[in-house]
Write a structure and sequence with these properties.
Layout: H1 3-12, H2 16-19, H3 24-56, H4 60-82, H5 89-114, H6 116-169, E1 172-186, E2 192-206, H7 209-247, H8 251-264, H9 266-283, H10 285-292, H11 297-322
Antiparallel strand pairs: 1-2
Helix pairs in contact: 1-3, 3-4, 3-5, 5-9, 6-7, 6-8, 8-9
Amino acid sequence: MKWWIKVGCFLTGWNSKILAQCSEASYKHLKKYTAALLILIILWGFTGFCFAQRYVGAPLWGCALSAFIFIVIVIQIERQIILTVGTNWWGACFRFFIAVIMSVLGSAILDQIIFGEDIKRKMVEITDRQVQEQLPLRLNVIDENLRKLQIDIDSLDKVNMLLNEEIAKRPTIKTVSSTTTYRNEKQEDGSYKQIPETIVSTSPIANPRIEQVNANKLNLERLREQQSEFTQRKINVENDLRKELSSNVGFLEELRAMIEIVSTRIEALIFYFVIFSFLISLELFVVTSKLGDKKCDYDLIVEHQLEIKKAALEELVKNINQK
């Protein structure tokens, strides 16, 4: 058996031993299913790779893994139709529903890649709108912080002013200290008794308010540094906000830009529906092939084996019930 037939059996899930007993008609069906699957594999492998690279920021091996996962999902979905014994209209309808979803997702991802430059220009417009919406809120927060800092600075300045006035009036203060000594005094009976003597002295020291003023000056320097930082942030708030919004562009932001492009430009809308129609046609290749063609001898052999097994089981159950 040729290698591409083995590859086709692997992708579709067909049994190569059963296929070896079949005619050329079954081989043609297999090749047709395989061709449809290969188209979907290439398409969704590319889509999965680009999605991981563009929006997830995955490394090369991560992009390859994402493409592989997309391919496995597509193969398993198509096998639900290919390996169905007989005609299952419910399965076909459900596959059509899945095809619509996959086509919407695929066209959204592919169109965002194809319209990449247009989306970048549209994102500039969207960013300008977002800046106008969020800038007043950012400025209000900064102004509130500046107001609180100014209140704290004015309060400390006022306290220092009062303390400096007090220090100017009393640069030093007197401290009182006392020491007690004992002297021996002879008594009438000839004994000695220790008599305490207390000496009181005063000494000038620097007003302790000076240390409090110095501590307040350090706090004022810290508050003024914060005030300067917030003032500089207020000056650069628009540029910082624009950079922040421009650097955090994800899938949904680009999808929003894509929707605006499609809704405002008729040529973009037409192209989107062309891509969507192309994808949904590819997705329904296998379904239409399965439902539209006559059964090949591979399908007949599988159904025949099923009927034989079913009859054998019914006969076995009948014999068991008779006993």
